[in-house]
């Protein structure tokens, strides 16, 4: 005898926890910052405002400091449950306690306004400062490692409470006949064997379990499309949980 899928409703959805490895339920009672396109369903009375929305000026002035990414984010306001997902990638929540964490911009899905978001000096990354919860996606499970360490840039999700990384190039990897082939063909030229990020000092580094970056897509607007494979994976994972 086979059992049917779990069917969720507002009373049974997890509170600020995973629905499954690929979806996360935020119990909203107030406001959260949310990357566009990452909310796949919600229950309750929730509205979504652009970052430039006038009544939210005081919130923005204390919690959002990234002009480059302002068009990618909204503020969710109200009461209810939001289900967050990102094309069937792994999704997890993390808690900062008076911390300082820098994360790849495309991986950060949402965060509580008790955290302040700032634009990192490293292109493509954002920094969260303070105490509170945030939700991030990754291509495979995330592992925490301690410096000193050198990591493949494509496996890097972020780093916490440690200095920004330096670039490290293995010039020996590009020397000789094989090095010439790599320069001409590009084979192996962009791998972690040639170029790494080097971390030193105290703190933790967050690594995903693959060297393949998540494909960063802009928020879907009317008239735009997303790859069919991505859309089917996202809808299929959610549908199995909601019983559709």
Automatic annotation (TrEMBL):
Annotated InterPro entries: AIM24 (IPR002838), AIM24_sf (IPR036983), Trp_RNA-bd_attenuator-like_dom (IPR016031)
Signal peptide: none
Name listed for the protein in its UniProt record: AIM24 family protein
